[in-house]
Design goal:
This protein has one domain: Aldolase class I (TIM Barrel, Alpha-Beta Barrel), CATH 3.20.20. The chain has ten helices and 14 strands. The strands form two sheets. Strands 9-10-11-8-7-6-5-4-3-12-13-14 form a twelve-stranded mixed beta sheet. It has a two-stranded antiparallel sheet with strand order 1-2. The two termini are 23 Å apart.
Amino acid sequence: MSDSEAPKDDPPSLIGKQGLFDSFGRLHNNLRISVTDRCNLRCTYCMPEEVTFLGRDQLLSFEEIVRFVRVAVTLGIDKIRLTGGEPLMRRELPSLVGMLSGVAGICDIGMTTNGLLLAEQAQAFYDAGLRRLNISLDTLDPDRFRQLARRDGLERVMEGILAAKQAGFRPIKLNAVSIRGFTETEVVPLARFARQHSLEMRFIEYMPIGADQWERNKVYFAHEILEQLEREIAPLVPVENYDPRAPAMEFQYTDGGGRVGIIASISRPFCRSCNRIRVTADGKLRNCLFALDEVDVKRLLRDGASEAVLADVIRRTVAAKWEGHEINTSRFIKPLRTMHAIGG
């Protein structure tokens, strides 16, 4: 599939099915939209130190995003997550949230942010209709924060978390990337901080999608995190009501101290139940985070493509989705784009 073309044929198994199914029978209802590739941090697992960002005219406009979403909703999309880069660097983003909240059929809008600009904007986002936040937080130590993010800012992140709580966001999830040689000393302090503030801590296995040289032996695995939490805090049991299509395995402390999520992208890939598609900030539709091909929907939108054409492109892109990313095989090929350019 080229940069501007969708796949040509439907797999026979999809004939007659309603909704966004791929050839493996997975139903897709979750759309991740990157609103910018810009970021005020330079996390080593996400992006290079030096980077040339997109110009404003290269980004999808709010109106183009909403038009795409309206078409996607007719195909079964009902959940949206705004990402970046750092989405809060996109000016007037609460306006987009308000526009998306008004789209009939959307039942859930979330956002992933590093939190640096959240204290000033949390209330505006809540008032616009945003209800769920994921905030990146890999450490509670300022020096280690700078080591990983290559910028200062931990204090501002903490202010953003508290402002989000005050604004009324529920739930608030904290995301930490788990890297061997760095994470081991961070797991327990982060988990205790989350318990203290009624937040959900989520640990994400280190993935080969950033600018640094990924090495499998740097992955601090899910089972190691769980063993550490149980050894040093409290026993954990699987929750009974979590969505099996969600990327995180959900656990709750037996002492009533809240929940922990584990995204085991390497040791326990969730490809079999994946329900996501993605649109990058420059308007490329991707059917997987690790996809090697993408479709230029920005060009279609700006050329005045009809809703029927857009719907067909979405449907065929989903239909062409592969079985899985194959990180654990010799066949894996790392995407040319890094995380900040794809959308987290």
